[in-house]
Amino acid sequence: MSVVSAKRLTLFDYVNYTLLGLISLVSLFPFVYVFAVSFTDPKVYVPLEFRLFPEKWSLAAYHYILSTNSFLNALKSTTFVTLIGTVLSLAVSFSFAYALTKKSMPGRRLLLGGVIFTLVFNAGILPNYLLIKELGLLNSLWSLIWSGLTSAWSLIVIKSFLESLPPELEEAGRIDGCTDLGVFWRIVIPLSMPAIATFTLFFAVAYWNTYFNAFIYLSDSHKWTLQVLVKSLVIDSDSNGVGEAGAAGDDAILPQETIRMASIVLAMAPILLAYPFLQKHFAKGVMLGSVKG
Q1: All domains of the chain, ordered by start, with CATH?
Q2: Residue 47: partners with Cβ closer than 8 Å, 6 or more residues away
Q3: pLDDT digits (tens, 9 = 90+) for 126-161
Q4: How far apart are CA 31 and CA 36, in angstroms?
Q5: What does the DSSP assignment read for 232-267?
Q6: CA distance 98 to 119
Q7: Contact at 8 Å (CB) between 210 and 225?
């Protein structure tokens, strides 16, 4: 029997676990309420009535939202930004970080100093907006990708992780005739799968939840991301729906609250479904990148 399993729980442990359990339950209440309202039949929905379970289940709100042009356009925009942005961010971050690990690379100290400088100082909203404008990316989905392609924190963590890999493997690859690109692709990348899985999650969540950049860079409502559309539905008082319904029918009159909650659930669902598949790499990837072994 291990020391941990043989340890007796004290009164503090019981109180601590009880409080943590209660806090977790309280934190889940808003999510449960959102799910309950989104699945509530519009005919039995009562405004401002708190229910953890729908009185009568219905998919009417989801059917309505998924049949509207504005939601489908926002879903396409968010999916495009997330998929393309995540791939490009991984490529740029790992290739740049790998180059920073090479002490023989000319200008390495200057580049590394520039990365650390951006970690401490940020240009701000207005210079970033002017930069995007001068690049001709305003009102383009590419503005959401190029403006957040990588970050100083990501580069430093990935660099620390790559430096923890055994250098003998790279030397063996070069002896076998691999070029620098071949060593990176055939040796470094396969060994970096835990970190790649971790940063895939980081980048995908960041791009999927992009709101502020989309709000200031995109003026065309047809190019809005899901987060901007959901904000318009939930917060804006003049929001009456998500667009013209293509299949809901003219006689379908739905409470705005059920539509808002259903849009929130649809915006959260992809990340909630993808996270469990990458969770096992999450802690390992971050720890390997934080301490050089």
Answers
A1: 63-293 (1.10.3720.10)
A2: 255, 257
A3: 888 998 999 898 999 999 999 888 989 889 989 988
A4: 9
A5: HHHT-TT---SS-BSSS-TT----HHHHHHHHHHHH
A6: 18
A7: yes
